[in-house]
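User: I'm new to structure prediction. If I give you an amino acid sequence, what do you actually give back? Let's try with this one:
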Amino acid sequence: MAGFPCPGPRTRREFLRVGALALGGLTLPDVLQAREFASQKTADTSVILFWMWGGPSHMETYDLKPNAPSEFRGPFDPIATNVPGMDLCEHMPLQARLADKFSIIRSLHHEMSAHNDGSIEVLTGKTPSVPDLTSQAHSEHPDFGMIAARVRGGRADGLPQYVGVQKAPFMTMPRYLGLNHKAFETGDPSVTGFAPPNLQLSAGVDEVRLVERKSLIHQLDRYRSAMDLNGSLEGIDRFRGAAFDILTSSAVAKAFDLDRESPHLRDRYGRHRWGQSCLLARRLVEAGTAVVNIDATAPSNASPHFSWDDHAGAFDLGVANRERLPQMDQGLSALIEDLHVRGLNQKVLVIAVGEFGRTPRLVHAAKNFSGAPSLGRDHWPQAYCAMIAGGAFRMGQVIGATNSKGEYPVQDPLTPQDMLATVYLHLGISPEQTFNDFNGRPIAVLPHGKPIQQLL
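Assistant: Good question. You get back a string of structure tokens that encode the predicted 3D arrangement of the chain. For your 456 residues, that looks like this:
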């Protein structure tokens, strides 16, 4: 191949590895295409995840089935977008006008039917070794934001590499990466006078006292580390150092200061939790944060719809989504447009997804949490959707399809591992990179999955 240096003869092990990849569905051309795409990436790429924990219904958002039988068809109608053949829910008109700037994946699926298990599958790419149907499970492996924080390393300006806007996913743990790779949680950016924890100094606390306090903490931590034979406190030392850097960094304070944005732009995003979360996420990735996870569970503290878990006995599907979808639509559409205006759409990848979809067949309940008759759907990991925008990927397309009732993929079935392989490709992180667990065993970043070819 002209223009590429010759690497010399290949070893037998390398040829066997290529063969194994081909047998697993990833051919040599796929490898070369992904490698070429990755070579264009730099260390300043970022990911914003609009994390809809609870499991948003694919049939009320990005994969409506208006011709399905009444026991499957939902309460909403589809509307056309500016991309022929791509329809969205009627409560997403702002996204419909810029559908050429994102793609929809309609064929995601896995087998984890509990919230935490499904979340672990989607965020870490590793199936829980013992599924926990009580939804109390916590991950055995770090999620992709923690991996990115570990690979990228600390920033000189103190800006966190991994941020949970409002809060981070509670079911994933850094485990063998160390405590210091947990996400920095911001609190609710829509509240009056917003400032995240650890960025507010009391009057009269000057730099000298901060330095003295840091010195005292380091002395204590060194003593504790000397007593720690297993090295388990190492992450705490680093976590304290990172917290101090965040506390004293003017660059970090600037990145979190939403008052630097014009009132008009803040209005465009929406003066609600999800809108201001999307705006804060844009500011953070613009400043250099690698991964931002937006907690898109409840639209507000006052909302009775505390997640996307639309069981008939909990929320009415129509009522809940009439509240959620307009706010989601406003925040995400403003974010996508703003990234394009600022020339950040190549650098930043935006994903909106939850841990699974909802049952295609509707469920009725005589009474929900509000005491009213209700329509809902239960857990359904066999089919769900994701919206993906930016990242220098191919936009304006629908990838995959489910059958006429939305039950399972019938075209281009994709897994959470495929989506994560795409994320890692964007971030320039090799899925084959390993980290040792507590027993010294090397654990690959992603054991299987391949980048979504239609996006490359």
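You can read the tokens as a compact description of the fold. Here is one thing that stands out. Residues 197-255 form one domain.
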